[in-house]
Design brief:
By secondary structure, the protein is an alpha/beta fold. It has two domains: about 230 residues, Phosphoenolpyruvate-binding domains (TIM Barrel); about 40 residues, no CATH class. About 40% of the residues lie in helices and about 15% in strands. It contains eleven helices and eight strands. Helix 2 packs across helix 4, helix 5 crosses helix 6 and helix 6 packs parallel to helix 7. The protein starts with 8 loop residues before the first helix and ends with a helix. The protein binds 3-methyl-2-oxobutanoic acid. The site of 3-methyl-2-oxobutanoic acid (KIV) has 11 residues, from loops. 3-methyl-2-oxobutanoic acid (KIV) binds next to loops.
């Protein structure tokens, strides 16, 4: 048996209490999940951002349950330690509570993830509560909610005015009361994220929420330089994996064209006598 200890929700709650920062990142495939888990990440989010960074959609709106389920299963096959969150795609939980429980159940039971995430504040509190009551842990997501960015006037920082800030605080409190065990705070002022973090007993994970959140999340492709369409202000780019891959493939093409690949070390051989016999029988 492996001696790696899986991260559970009580571990995350304890980290908040002990003021240990929680690290979270997205992953969508077996090799990505294997890599971030080996690195020691606390939480992996199989985010619906996969629609943009892996599937080439314009935004996260078109992502389907089938796509989320397939990627969640691939991630779960790789992960040994991290807590894994499956993201509920747009319109998989917005129609009715029954629909939300059914789809949360599919991600949790068939996808085998450790919890599910959905976007929205007070308007989603009853849905969150229904999923939690059905026995599935829920991660909330407030502030800038990409699935409904159109309703917010685009991808803009939220909660800057006193009224807007009060709304984000009310959203956070409503989700905690509904039973969410953690919250993503996306694109809100640092001071507001700090106030929410102080007020709540559940961990807050910022993405564009500043240093005072209990933890941070980034999209893997943004931070390793694999997504080149745009880079939001809150992203720190740690590597240029796209360029490394591009150079490797260019070298491979040149090697194939110049007959430098495959060399002896990448080649299987047989005895000369066997070749001669085959030549004779083929008449060449
Ligand atoms: O889908 C996603 O990657 C997310 C993060 C931005 C938190 O929801």
């Amino acid at each position: 048996m492996s001696d790696i200890k899986k991260i559970m929700i009580p571990d995350l709650l304890a980290m908040k209490k002990e003021r240990k920062k929680i690290s979270m990142i997205t992953a969508y495939s077996f090799p990505q999940a294997q890599c971030v888990d080996e690195a020691g990440i606390d939480i992996i989010l199989v985010g619906d951002s996969l629609g943009m960074v892996e599937l080439g959609y314009r935004d996260t709106v078109p992502v389907t349950m089938e796509e989320m389920l397939s990627h969640t299963k691939a991630v779960m096959r790789a992960v040994k330690r991290a807590h894994v969150v499956g993201d509920m795609p747009f319109m998989s939980y917005n129609i009715s509570r029954e629909q939300a429980i059914t789809n949360a159940g599919i991600l949790y039971k068939d996808g085998l993830c450790d919890s599910v995430k959905l976007e929205g504040g007070q308007e989603m509190a009853a849905t969150v509560n229904a999923i939690v009551k059905a026995g599935i842990p829920v991660f909330g997501h407030i502030g800038l909610t990409p699935q409904t960015a159109g309703m917010l006037g685009g991808f803009k920082v939220q909660g800057k005015s006193i009224d807007a800030a009060r709304k984000v605080i009310d959203d956070a409190v409503a989700l905690e009361e509904a039973g969410a065990y953690a919250l993503v705070l996306e694109a809100i002022p640092r001071q507001l994220a700090g106030l929410i973090t102080e007020k709540l007993t559940i961990p807050t994970i910022g993405i564009g929420g500043g240093l005072d959140c209990d933890g941070q999340v980034l999209v893997l492709h943004d931070m390793v330089g694999l997504f080149r369409r745009f880079t939001p202000k809150f992203v720190k780019v740690y590597a240029d994996v796209y360029s490394v891959q591009l150079e490797a493939v260019k070298k491979y093409i040149a090697d194939v064209q110049g007959k430098a690949f495959p060399s002896e070390e990448h080649t299987f051989t047989m005895k000369d006598e066997t070749v001669s016999e085959l030549r004779k029988s083929l008449g060449i």
